[in-house]
Amino acid sequence: MSQQQFQNKVTEVNWSKVEEYLKQEIPVLSDEPIQVKAFSAGYSNLTYFIQIGDWQAVLRRPPFGAIPPKAHDMKREFIILQKLNRVFPLAPKPFLYCEDSRIMERHFYVMEKKEGVVIDDSIPDEFQTQENTGLLVSNAVVDTLAELHAVDYEAADLQDFGYPDGYLSRQVHGWIKRFHNSKTDDIPSVEKLEKWLIDNIPSSPAPSIVHNDFKLNNMMFSASNPGEVVGVFDWELSTIGDPLTDLASAIAYWAEPGEEDSGLTSVTANSGFLSRKEMLERYAKKSGRDVSNIDYYLTFAFYKIAVILQQLYYRWKIGEAPDERFGKLDTGIKNLLKQAAKAQQKELLR
After folding, report:
1. Distance (Å, rounded) from C-alpha 250 to C-alpha 247?
2. Rounded CA gap, 251 and 253, in Å?
3. How far is CA 277 from CA 120, 139, 226, 346, in A?
4. Coil, strand or helix: which one is 92?
5. What letter does residue 124 receive in the DSSP assignment?
6. Which of 188, 190, 310, 342 could join 347 in a cystine, given CB atoms 3.0 to 4.6 angstroms apart?
7. What percent of the chain shows pLDDT beyond 90?
8. pLDDT, tens digit, for every residue of 19-77?
9. Could you read off the pLDDT of 198-219 as tens digits, one per residue?
């Protein structure tokens, strides 16, 4: 889907009904008309910036078209944010949730709009003259992850949002099943890697809140300080589980200079950012957790990202997803699986 096609999705929602609903539920809103802008097109839920007068917010809803049962659960995400924002205010504060199909054909929720800068595949203009931007960003990412994992999820009343017992085993078997359900090309090394993942599942540390998609472009930084995180987004996959899965995913997404195309882009492939090993060492110091089994978790993290891309590639190949980006993911999938093999051999964190 091109950015123009994504922007066209704005018109598929009856925003007059949304406006009427918001003004009914939030009486302080002015009489000015609603303004809407679709954010960048991701691979999952849709996000819109909405404004009425001086009031600004963000609306989240599932994608258009057919979706699997229980997928894209906006109500669950809304409730998690209600509880999490109180103890971890980097999670946006949710305002209201709606499942009235007369307002919108999909359920949705509205949350606060954070003010700052999102970093993806390049250094934002705001930080071009800032010294040590890479180092400041790196430290902030690690420290924020450690802070999240330190939250007392029972005190936040989030204990019912996950099943920590057996979490890692379910994840490993579940993602292997997903890969085989979306298989397209024969990759001989995969079965050996999967057997190793199943046979070597380590014991998990004490459970914590797990974001499950913790990466640089799901965070927002202060426009005046690249070392200050002001928001963490996309909580739809969050649960209670093994914190080292979060750490390993963050490290796997943290590209290093000179690596082969993975189908993903990240500014961290440039110089000035911490290495994966340095990220790991800082997390271990900040969290106090034993990270001696990280090579297993990192192997699984690269495998999991490969499966995520494989699912998208499969949808493109069978004609369900015409997005031209998906048709180029096969090379990245193979390179991610190579990275998984390197992690298995303990070659990536030397």
Report:
1. 5
2. 5
3. 21, 13, 21, 12
4. coil
5. -
6. 342
7. 78
8. 999 999 999 999 999 999 998 554 568 899 999 999 999 999 987 765 555 556 889 99
9. 999 999 999 999 999 999 999 9
Asked whether the beta carbons of 33 and 20 are under 8 A apart, the reply is no
| Beta-carbon-side half-sphere exposure of residue 262 (alpha carbons within 13 Å) | 24
Amino acid at 342: K
Rounded to whole angstroms, how far apart are CA atoms 82 and 156? 10
Does an H or E element contain 11, and which? none
With contact defined as beta carbons under 8 Å apart, do 146 and 287 qualify? yes
pTM summary value: 0.91
Q: What is the pLDDT of residue 2?
A: 47
- Across the beta sheet with 34-38, what order do the strands follow? 34-38, 46-52, 55-61, 108-112, 94-98
Q: Are 184 and 310 in contact (CB under 8 A)?
A: yes
CA distances from 54 to 29, 30, 57, 156, 330 (A): 9, 8, 10, 32, 45
Amino acid letter at 205?
Answer: P
- Owner of token pair 């999909």: 106
